[in-house]
Amino acid sequence: MNYVTKTAILTKQVPISPLAVTAGSSDSGKRLDSFLHERLPEYSRSRLQSWIKQDRVQLNAAPVRASHTLRPGDTVTLSPAGLAPLQAEPEELPLKILYQDDDVVVVDKPAGMVVHAGAGHTHGTLVNALLHHFGTLSAINGDLRPGIVHRLDRETSGVMVVARTDFAHQSLAAQFQSRKVEKVYLTLVHGLLKPPQGRITTPIARDPVRRTRMTTKLLSGRSALTEYKTLATFNLFSYLEVRIGTGRTHQIRVHLASLRHPVVGDRLYGAPASPLGLPDPARFFLHAHRLAFDSPGSGRRITIESPLAGELAALLETLRTNTVTMDVAK
């Protein structure tokens, strides 16, 4: 979907002087990008990596890669690019509201919409749309991410809750942390899962080689819990209901790919570009279907569902009409 913006974040550029930092003995063996993020926490890791690619970072007066490991005494010089003011602005964008009260807003995020501003995305985000519709949101996460308690990947559609007040933000954050929030997704994957229902608990870490990916192949990583149940099978595909107990980056995608059942359309995790028997998907098949949480104000349980996005429902119907379907779970 093409979102037309009326207000951009990039209104002016703020010049930054060059910076120099020297590695100590405790920094030996650290990656360059990790070292810079530790020493210069005011800049995001993605922004630092982008500057490294632009040769704005030099090690001992020479350009270097983000993965380069440091030695004590190494001098790193950074020449930052101009920075945009770190504040999201309201933009008149389409916004489908599923529920709202004085504490929270629950929206149906479309695929293709980024949740908040970041590297390469300075406008057209969900935050911009929310600020236009509601004016103010919780300030706990700062001026770039007001109200944001959890996120969905850009190409994941479905239900998201946003905090309108700091009190609501603290309540929701505590519920996510203690795993009291029910998060249910619908997805279509390659192959037939055996067993058709199960749990995946493999820790998830950032891929050290391909930094845009996560991986389950490292000994280190953050704990993660994904539960899946096969709803139906379509010859070479399985339609799943997935519940997650944690909220790791790309969790469902990387966990299912680790079982050799990547999400349809998810080329980052090994899905083919042209799935056999299906039209080329314009996005990966992952939809946040249901979210349940306790109201920060009243304490009552709130359950909100988002129907399967239209393009995903159409793809599913193509499978149903062209293959033999077996319902696995009722």
Describe this structure in words.
It is a single chain. With 330 residues, the protein is α+β, with helices and mostly antiparallel strands. It folds into three domains: 19-78, RNA-binding S4 domain (Structural Genomics Hypothetical 15.5 Kd Protein In mrcA-pckA Intergenic Region, Chain A, Roll); 85-178, 2-Layer Sandwich (Pseudouridine synthase); 179-330, Pseudouridine synthase (2-Layer Sandwich), CATH 3.30.2350. Helices cover 18% and strands 25% of the residues. The protein contains six helices and 16 strands. The protein has helices at residues 32-39, 45-53, 126-134, 166-177, 251-258, 310-322, and strands at 19-22, 57-59, 62-63, 75-78, 97-100, 104-109, 157-163, 182-190, 197-200, 205-206, 214-215, 226-234, 237-244, 286-294, 301-305, 325-327. The strands form three sheets. Strands 5, 6, 7, 8, 9, 12, 13, 14, 15 and 16 form a ten-stranded mixed sheet that branches. Strands 1-4-2-3 form a four-stranded antiparallel sheet. Strand 2 and strand 3 (62-63) form a beta hairpin. Helix 1 (32-39) packs across helix 2 (45-53). The radius of gyration is 22 Å and the shape is globular. The model is unreliable at 1-15 (pLDDT under 50).
**Uncertain stretches of 5 or more adjacent residues:** 1-15
Q: What characteristic shape results from the CA principal axes?
A: globular
CATH class of the largest domain: Alpha Beta
Mean pLDDT: 88
Helix-strand blueprint:
Blueprint: E1 19-22, H1 32-39, H2 45-53, E2 57-59, E3 62-63, E4 75-78, E5 97-100, E6 104-109, H3 126-134, E7 157-163, H4 166-177, E8 182-190, E9 197-200, E10 205-206, E11 214-215, E12 226-234, E13 237-244, H5 251-258, E14 286-294, E15 301-305, H6 310-322, E16 325-327
Parallel strand pairs: 7-14
Antiparallel strand pairs: 1-4, 2-3, 2-4, 5-6, 6-7, 8-13, 8-14, 9-12, 10-11, 12-13, 12-16, 14-15
Helix pairs in contact: 1-2
